[in-house]
Write a structure and sequence with these properties.
The protein is mostly helical and 310 residues long. The protein has eleven helices and two strands.
Length: 310
């Protein structure tokens, strides 16, 4: 009797071949394919990358000093050439280069937008997680505080805090951070109320895991994507709020260069020197739209309810 044995061919891994790069590309392919299919996401990513580059290296590449002016070159239109060089976007009432001031002002916008969102998001996610998970008096206290802040008009709250604290960049970031957590807390609380009833959370309790372990290991990772989507959308809102407050004189003070202050300086010359308000306004608009576009793409990628929708 002969026993026939099957010969199994075991593939030998090719060291140095093309399989490893292909596997690495496959890991990134869904994200890259999603970005390529979204022209809005590509535009948003490009605008955000440009904004970050200007915020980091803007002070090194500006063609003119953004603070020191030349009174002999005041109110010059875009494209004016002086002994100091070309003023691409014109000059203001003190002869300062508009193009250089817009580049330097991007640093303040990025700092206010990112830091304020980090502060507000951290506080809001923590309070929303605690309120939704524990419920009871914790939920009542957090939500009543949130309702109280929502009942106060934002401008009145800013004026009150600015009157107590000295005006400046740090004060503005603190105000936007401490007043912006309410949105995160309410959204995250709603997500936690849904997630804590899922089967895997009940199973975690059944095998004896503590409440803190369940909250940190099973609930928080499943709501963090919602927080990221919300934070991406709130960066543009925060940048717009900073520009509005600086325009009203409630935000950053001169000589710090911000787009809101540039709009405030040019509003009385809007008929004779239109470029003083037009170009800072365009910078604010493009920045807010770019952040919103990128936030929409992140929502499509991270939100399971949006997947599969054309």
């Amino acid at each position: 009797m002969s026993v026939e044995t099957e010969k199994k061919v075991i593939p030998i891994p090719q060291i140095g071949g093309k399989r490893e790069p292909e596997s690495n590309r496959r890991r990134l392919s869904p994200l890259w394919a999603s970005l390529r299919r979204s022209p809005v996401g590509m535009i948003g990513l490009g605008i955000v990358c440009l904004l970050l580059f200007l915020a980091v290296f803007g002070s090194l590449i500006v063609p003119h000093d953004p603070v020191d002016g030349n009174l002999r070159a005041r109110f010059m239109p875009p494209g004016f050439t002086s002994e100091a060089g070309v003023n691409l976007l014109g000059t203001d009432q003190l002869g300062r280069d508009i193009f250089s001031r817009i580049i330097v002002g991007s640093t303040v916008s990025v700092m206010v937008g990112v830091v304020s969102v980090l502060i507000a998001g951290s506080i809001g996610v923590l309070l929303g997680l605690l309120a939704g998970f524990f419920g009871g008096w914790v939920d009542n206290v957090v939500m009543r505080i949130a309702d109280g802040l929502l009942s106060i008009p934002f401008i009145i709250l800013v004026v009150a805090v600015s009157g107590i604290l000295s005006a400046g960049l740090g004060t503005l970031i603190l105000i936007l951070g401490l007043t912006g957590w309410v949105t995160y807390a309410r959204v995250i609380r709603g997500e936690v109320l849904k997630v804590r009833e899922m089967e895997y959370v009940i199973a975690a309790y059944a095998i004896g895991q503590s409440r803190v372990r369940v909250m940190l290991n099973h609930i928080l990772p499943n709501v963090i994507s919602t927080a990221i989507i919300l934070a991406a959308s709130q960066v543009g809102v925060t940048i717009l709020a900073e520009s509005s407050l600086s325009f009203l004189g409630l935000g950053v003070k001169s000589p710090t260069v911000t787009w809101g202050l540039m709009l405030a300086d040019g509003r009385q010359y809007i008929n004779s020197a239109w470029w003083m308000t037009t170009f800072p306004g365009i910078a604010i608009t493009i920045t807010v739209l770019g952040v919103a576009f990128l936030g929409d793409w992140l929502r499509d990628v991270l939100d399971p309810n949006m997947r599969g929708r054309g």
